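Fold these two proteins, one after the other.
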Amino acid sequence: MQAAAEFKRRTRAELPDDWPKFSTQSIQDAANKQQDIASRKASQNALNAFGPVLPELIGGSADLAGSNLTIWSGSKTISKDSPAGNYIYYGVREFAMAAINTGIALHGGFIPYGATFLIFSDYARNALRMAALMKQRSIFVLTHDSIGLGEDGPTHQAIEQAATLRMIPNMSVWRPCDSVESFVAWKMAIENDTGPSCLLFSRQGLKHNERTAAQIENIQRGGYILIHGADKPEAIIIATGSEVSIAVETANQLNAAGHKVRVVSMPCTNLFDAQDADYQDNVLPADCRNRVAIEAGIPDFWRKYVGLDGKVLGVPTFGESAPAGAVFKHFGITTENLTGLVKAYL
């Protein structure tokens, strides 16, 4: 009977009974490690944590497996000589990979994921849109998520991709700021059986952020208070991904000087938008219009959160070819510039 129940669960790609407890503990373990690592590496750590209990996982990469770190310790290559594996090398075929990914989801019994750089999501756009239209649990791992890619220049630096992916109905787009948020992003993508998820990960290392248990729990709401500041903050900084560390540094400096600045980390905007009005107002109080959003991509997406009076620190044009730190400085994605924008309110 137990074997029959397990077979039925796997053919439906239903999660194990102890998944809630197991995934919660894995996220807490990631928090306890306090690692300063690239979120693409945190993603691989999440796969190594979750993979052993999810034989349904079947992954792959469009030529870039060594860079997007989607091979985990239990990965076995699928080939004509070894059809029983769980990892597919697609070659330079982003569209085909995304389409096959969704086909595997439609077949049933599997939780598929496919990976490439975020910039190359453009090649797969029609297939990504179809996954959303068909409401399939298809996971897309998109690394090298911004101008942080650096020396490869504007052809490889994602500027508008994060914003436009967020505009696809029924698509969940996660841009985590550290290892903990990366684990939560994977957990939520695995649990999301009514639509696809895009997981956007960094090439460069990201700083660990300290959180309470309540803050870790609220990550899955898509947006939450990372630095409280005060019940009635003077200003609010909204940030995602690698820019969260800039927001935290800015807020800590200003709060140490006697101000009341809140930082909201918003790794998944569509999930935040789905929260009830009370939660949204608690995170982004309507009576605080002094808001600044920061993300290393096109600014216009964030107007809906900062309002007409708010400000957005972003990248309104294509990137440059230089080390990541130099590119961030060139475009003004720095603590100094963000501090100046917030100070204008204070």
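Now the second one:
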Amino acid sequence: MKVLELKNVNKIYDGSEVHVHAVNNVTLEFQEAEFAAIVGPSGSGKTTLLNLIGGLDMPTSGKIIIDGSDLSGLKSSQLIDFRMRNIGFVFQAYNLIPVLTAKENVEFIMNLQKWSRKERDERTFELLKAVGLGDRMNSRPSKLSGGQQQRVAVARALASRPKFVLADEPTANLDSKSATTLLEIMEKLNHEEKITFIFSTHDARVVKMAHRVITLEDGSVVSDDIRE
């Protein structure tokens, strides 16, 4: 089932001294439960494309359609609500709330969505156990390693059962063992939860595990390799 469609998407940054065509006429479709990596050299448009898909930025032209909804047709408040219900984010810098425990970070979105306490508790425990942190639920980020913080971030991204998860260089700040562990966890959750994962990455380990590899150069798609 198709969950995401990009139609002739462009993003141009046009300042007084600079004109950058960061995303250039990109047309792509993503299906439910894909595990896809967007790769390319620095400046190729990977992060910009991910931000456009996530509604964190708007295209200069073209359409981004998620589950039948055109993001460009949504008002700001509608877009915030749409992101909260449909998209999970995993950032390179973890972006956990430092004063909250692992449990509180994971259930944050569910609180905003008015899940019942029973539903929040069950889902949070399920996810933290799945990422190997069932015994660290009450630890704050400062008491967790980088790899553990990123696992909390993955659990948080999956908490409200979004249509897909966008992960921007999620392994960049991790050692090799932590990166491999994180990727194995994400692949397992992708399979079990049927949630589409889309990565932007330079990491060969992510590329090796991805079921689809989209290569960008100068903002354009130059190859789209779907693996068996």
